[in-house]
What we know:
Layout: E1 7-10, E2 15-18, E3 20-23, E4 26-29, H1 31-50, H2 53-56, H3 59-63
Antiparallel strand pairs: 1-2, 3-4
Amino acid sequence: MRRFTQYWRNDYVAVEHWSRNIVRNQYVHLVELHEQHVHFAKTWDNNLRLQGFAEAFTDKCIVG
């Protein structure tokens, strides 16, 4: 699976990051920030997988 993370937001500390965006009709790609977003997305996915979130949203778990 490929991830194209370009946006990160933390409401708790009121922070928003865009690593790819269009500014004044120009495409802007912040390479280092994008790499941080990709790393964060991989870490987040792994943490959710280890906590069993995918299993919690199967039909059997929802219906009972």
